[in-house]
């Protein structure tokens, strides 16, 4: 009799502990667990976080001649990030900061900009006769309400814009729509509350500047021209205290510009050079309308009188329609002062 050969021994194998307990579990060969990918904080950081990091670094950097080169480079990076924030390239990013759909009409357009509940709607109602809802709570106006002022044959369109909040330039509180509509105006009226801190003026200016609006400024008197070769050629007709060749090269290299002619005819700063390179800045006049001055003292009004480009008004607007002028507390009628700038 022939005996059957003994079966070959099976190769050893391992099973997972979780599969050994059930009776019907299938035997599988052991495989080590896949390590989780390491986080990439630099690549995954949002644009807002990058902006905040640069602003923090700029606030901690001491301003002097030794740090001018570094600060100029940081300002160029900050301008590029803000442009990326305002004009997103990805789909579904909310558009490039489109404003309210209001048809431009008349000889000039004036926008009322300010924080909520400072009297913008009441000012529009009294000056134009247009109805804009007025209430004691904030954010009464949720859309742009236009009105028209007729003066000596000139037709001025006045826009009542919703109140903005701090961080409007970053998209908070429909800030992009409000400031985008303000960019289409010829004059901006920043309405301030006399009983609120005067620091609100600087906060609103910061929001508008973050969106490329320069108030009561003229375009920089400089020439910037790109060329094919030759490197960066920097010339100036005046003594420069803010810019030098190294700073100009650093700012241009941030924009990947390696060949250009830069000619200065005034003592320019790094911000002026960045504005010229960006080419999307808007320069417009601005009037600071200080409202509710009937709730402050004469001494406080004397302090506000040092504010440039300002016009005080009261909550009682009956005197605004008096074309002969105000009382002794009002140096100019608002209509005369406004229309002398717009027309």
TrEMBL record:
Keywords noted in UniProt: GTP-binding, Nucleotide-binding
PROSITE patterns: G_OBG, GTP1_OBG
Compositional bias per record (Pro residues), positions renumbered to this chain: 1-12
GO MF term set: GTP binding; GTPase activity
Domain OBG-type G: 108-343
PANTHER family xref list: DEVELOPMENTALLY-REGULATED GTP-BINDING PROTEIN 2
Name of the protein in question: OBG-type G domain-containing protein
């Amino acid at each position: 009799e022939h005996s059957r050969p003994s079966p070959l021994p099976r190769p050893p194998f391992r099973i997972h502990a979780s599969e050994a307990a059930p009776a019907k579990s299938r035997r599988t060969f052991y495989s080590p667990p896949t390590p989780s990918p390491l986080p990439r904080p630099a690549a995954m950081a949002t644009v807002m976080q990058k902006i905040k990091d640069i602003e923090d670094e700029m606030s901690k950097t001491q301003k002097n001649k030794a740090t001018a080169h570094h600060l100029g480079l940081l300002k160029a990076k900050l301008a590029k990030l803000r442009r990326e924030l305002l004009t997103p390239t990805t789909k579904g990013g909310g558009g490039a900061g489109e404003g309210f759909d209001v048809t431009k009409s008349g000889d000039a357009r004036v926008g009322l900009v300010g924080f909520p509940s400072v009297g913008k709607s009441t000012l529009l109602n009294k000056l134009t006769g247009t109805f804009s809802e007025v209430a004691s709570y904030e954010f009464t106006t949720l859309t742009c309400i236009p009105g028209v002022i007729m003066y000596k044959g000139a037709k001025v369109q006045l826009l009542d814009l919703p109140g903005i909040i701090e961080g409007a330039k970053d998209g908070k509180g429909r800030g992009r729509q409000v400031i985008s509509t303000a960019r289409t105006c010829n004059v901006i009226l920043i309405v301030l509350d006399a009983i609120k801190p005067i620091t609100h003026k600087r906060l609103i200016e910061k929001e508008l500047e973050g969106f490329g609006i320069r108030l009561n400024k003229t375009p920089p008197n400089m020439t910037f021209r790109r060329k094919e070769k030759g490197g960066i050629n920097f010339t100036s007709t005046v003594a420069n205290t803010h810019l030098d060749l190294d700073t100009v090269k650093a700012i241009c290299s941030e924009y990947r510009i390696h060949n250009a002619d830069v000619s200065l005819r005034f003592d320019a700063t790094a911000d002026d050079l960045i504005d010229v390179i960006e080419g999307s800045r808007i320069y417009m006049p601005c009037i600071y309308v200080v409202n509710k001055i009937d709730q402050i003292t004469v001494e406080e009004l004397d302090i506000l009188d040092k504010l440039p480009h300002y016009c005080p008004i009261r909550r009682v607007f009956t005197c605004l329609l008096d074309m002969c002028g105000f009382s002794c507390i009002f140096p100019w009628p608002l209509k005369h002062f406004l229309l002398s700038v717009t027309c």
